[in-house]
Amino acid sequence: MVDAVVIIPTYNEIENVERIIKNVLALQRDFDILVVDDNSPDGTAVKVKELQEEYPEHLFLLERKGKLGLGTAYITGFKWALERSYEYIFEMDADFSHNPNDLIRLYNACAKGTSQVAIGSRYVTGVNVVNWPMSRVLLSWLASKYVRFITGMDIHDTTAGFICYKREVLEKINLDKIKFVGYAFQIEMKFKAYLLKFKIKEVPVVFTDRTRGTSKMSKGIISEAVFGVLRMKFKSLFNSYEI
């Protein structure tokens, strides 16, 4: 039995999805993949179905009716994984900003170490980002500093989306109480794991911006993160924050 599943949310990732799937399934350690597709009009789900014929035991697909947000895609994937026997559940982008080879390092941090959460961190050993303009690097770095200051989490890359969760973490968090749907979802999940006193380890990785397809970042996503963090921390101080 494969004990690890990589959840990959997709929306219009036809240029990347075949390569990312084949790269992950070619690793020396066995991983299953769950693609959660938000009704991509470019045929991403169709390509995944074709690849399922090649990898029938390791590649799975959930199709949703529309573009419902990153956070809800992961929650859908988490619930699917928890209904099965996976011990290690991963978040990873489809666009190769996360190097598939680093999955093994994140896995080992949880499976062979003492951590319950392993974060592929861009900022734990400096700034390890490739192909981003300086303005975006600075925005991302300052956002993580801001979140760290407000929440008190000892995490350098608080907005990272390359993560391994041990099963027990996702079982303890009430996934139906997750409030955020954009990139603030990543902050909220880490904050809840932190409040539950799970051990979180940052594994240094190099983040490489996509070379194919288009980014899903928007001003609304950034606003949700900035103001959502303040609300989240405020509620936690008065014991009104549901974990």
UniProtKB/TrEMBL annotation:
- The reply to whether rRNA-binding figures as a keyword in the UniProt entry is no
Q: Where are the transmembrane segments?
A: none
Domain called Glycosyltransferase 2-like: residue spans: 6-173
Checking CDD domains in the record gives: DPM1_like (cd06442)
Is the keyword Glycosyltransferase assigned to this protein?
Answer: yes
Q: Which InterPro entries match?
A: DPM1-like, Glyco_trans_2-like, Nucleotide-diphossugar_trans
Q: Which UniProt keywords apply?
A: Glycosyltransferase, Transferase
Protein family according to the UniProt entry = Belongs to the glycosyltransferase 2 family.
Q: What is this protein called?
A: Polyprenol monophosphomannose synthase
Q: Which organism is it from?
A: Aquimarina rubra
